[in-house]
Design brief:
Layout (H helix, E strand, L loop, with lengths): L1 E4 L5 E4 L12 H6 L1 H15 L6 H20 L3 H9 L2 H8 L3 H16 L12 H27 L5
Antiparallel strand pairs: 1-2
Helix pairs in contact: 2-3, 3-5, 3-6, 3-7, 5-6, 6-7
Length: 159
């Protein structure tokens, strides 16, 4: 699909020559957050359509759903879940993410994601590709964390 703008500023969609690519995430990530994959792919589609001024905002939103859904996936307490839903993303990362690897890469993804929403960038030499790298690294650390917990539960210490 190609999106063009005419001289009046109106957008027109030209029939697709090829469908946009879709990023497929692991079963683990889909189990943690169905919304993450959907939001990420909408941002990815926007990027493929050269909508470079809005795709970063979408990636930032996808990150927020991933982190908050991960925290709620890890904790079954309903009161905790309600608290997480209302909390700022950065506070969730700082206060609720226990794995340091997830915490450090997710913090940096938030920094770049916030740059995508503000007039002045704090990280002028970084761009959406760096944001995507940090999100994908966060995804891999979350997958590793969940898979490690599952395997340790399935194979407790042998005495």
């Amino acid at each position: 699909m190609v999106l063009t703008q005419d001289s009046y500023g109106d957008f027109k969609i030209i029939s697709p020559n090829a469908l946009p690519e879709k990023k497929v995430f692991s079963k683990i990530i889909r189990e943690v957050s169905q919304d993450f994959e959907k939001i990420y792919n909408q941002a990815f589609y926007a990027e493929q359509l050269s909508l470079d001024q809005i795709c970063g905002v979408g990636y930032r939103k996808a990150l927020e759903f991933l982190i908050k859904d991960f925290l709620m996936f890890e904790n079954s307490d309903e009161e905790y879940k309600e608290t997480i839903k209302k909390k700022f993303l950065y506070s969730c990362i700082q206060e609720d993410v226990s794995d340091e690897r997830i915490k450090e890469v997710a913090k940096r993804a938030v920094w770049l994601g916030n740059d995508e929403t503000h007039y002045v960038r704090k990280w002028a030499k970084k761009d959406v590709s760096n944001l995507k790298d940090l999100i994908n690294l966060t995804v891999r650390w979350i997958e590793n964390e969940i898979e490690t917990k599952r395997l340790l539960e399935e194979m407790p210490e042998y005495n």
